[in-house]
Structures are given as structure tokens and as C-alpha cells.
Design a protein that fits this description.
Layout (H helix, E strand, L loop, with lengths): L1 H6 L4 H8 L3 H15 L4 H25 L4
Helix pairs in contact: 2-3
Length: 70
Amino acid sequence: EVVQLILIGHNSNSIASKLSVSLSTVKTHRRNIYSKLDISSQAELFSVFFYIFGKQGYCYINAMVLSGKL
């Protein structure tokens, strides 16, 4: 859920609010996600997403933009 929210443009504060958890919980989840993927930034997360999902990933992000969610 955290990854999905990051990918559609939410920052850590927004994610914490949306999921009703603390900011430190979101930061811990982000750190664990980045560690498991062996990445260190949100830009790298997008790269991994597009590498794995290719054109489908692009279409997903585009749909989020068009629907106003991003």
C-alpha cells in the first residue's frame, strides 16, 4: 500500500495521514521497502516499477494522472 501511494505521488506525511499511522511508521516502511529493493531513492523506485511493469506501468501512472489521483 505504501509503494502504491508513493507511486501515485503521495509524500510521507500524506501517506501517514491516509493510512492513519505515524510519520515514523511510514519512514520505517519506506526504508524497509528501499532496502529490500536495494535502492535508495524515490526516483529509483520509479525506475524499478517501470523496469518490472514496462508499458503497463506507464499506462498505470498515466491513468492515475488522468483520474486526478496524481
